[in-house]
Amino acid sequence: MSRGRQERSSKDRTAGDRGRVLVARVDDAGDVLLAGPAVRAVRTRAREVVFLAGPNGRAAAELLPGVDRVIVWRAPWIDHTPPPVTGAGVEELVERAAGIDEAVLLTSFHQSALPLALLLRLAGVKRITAISNDYPGSLLDVRHVVDESVDVPEAERMLAVAEAAGFGLPEGDEGKLAVQRPLPDIGKFTGHCVGVGGVADKGAYVVVHPGTSAPARTWPAERHRQTVRELADDGHQVVVTGTERDLTAYVASDVAVDLGGVTTFAELAAVIERAGVLVAGNTGPAHLAAAVGTPVVSLFAPVVPAVRWAPYGVPAVLLGDQQAPCRGSRARVCPVPGHPCLSQVTSEQVVKAVRELTQ
Predict the structure, then answer these.
(1) Rounded mean pLDDT of the chain?
(2) DSSP 3-state assignment of 284?
(3) Would you tell me how many other CB atoms lie within 10 Å of the CB of residue 169?
(4) Residue 149: how many CB atoms within 10 A of its CB?
(5) Which of 265, 228, 18 shows the shortest CA–CA distance to 127?
(6) Model-level pTM greater than 0.85?
């Protein structure tokens, strides 16, 4: 696990109550779930853990073990539909961060922690830790510097920031992704897959999640639909999930159970937990599957490195051309005609991968 190097100020504490600590990850649900090990490390020494999330990450933050309270705020330098920078918006965050003793800022390699560090300084936060390859001046107390040319799993990268701040995982914690327990009852969604006691047994069905937050990461809907039919022909019960009801209805057709738009994030976690396998792109539910221990057939577009963002800590089969021309572009819309990195993946390959993970 790469740990990088740190520059520590005289404010570094080595023992005692660390007070109210804010952990920030202000982008999407999957990114927030990957921050889980770092949150649990902070929990070991914080009196209270406050999680700062963006609107798309709120539900995931509320599911993380160790989080006491969630603050939601749209960061203009990170949100996919960025709001304008306004005095009122800045004042809102400064007011809501009042009383925070310390902050651990978690970012991806292409994001800067310094704008948020500046606002938290205005809120009176005394000690701030973050990755910064740029000179941070007085904005950071612990500057964690990493070699960005080396790809490290995102969960490990964020845990390293917490460790740089002086927080470590509790004994026996292996650093995997996790969610709070108990999860909601899902009998009303999976009653067709009943087992002993009238509940769906683990592995009773396969979940197919066709949606993603970016078109460049999306496998064609018709391929998903064909895969559902072939999975059914292969003897699997299939559940289709997602927020886009037209898409899930099309993919489910008359073959699968369509749960499009009807589950909360916590209920989705419970649905995926009972599945034998999740079929999904590089999207939040893939990380949710990792957090509940469900194997993943990952339809992974190489616009970001799989080493960083593939499902972490669970069995997975990665499909998609990882050497395609879009590799490393971070594109949200595919820059290559025909979307070759994923369009060449066949339904037969997916069914074969499901078979491998369920045997």
Answers:
(1) 91
(2) helix
(3) 18
(4) 6
(5) 18
(6) yes
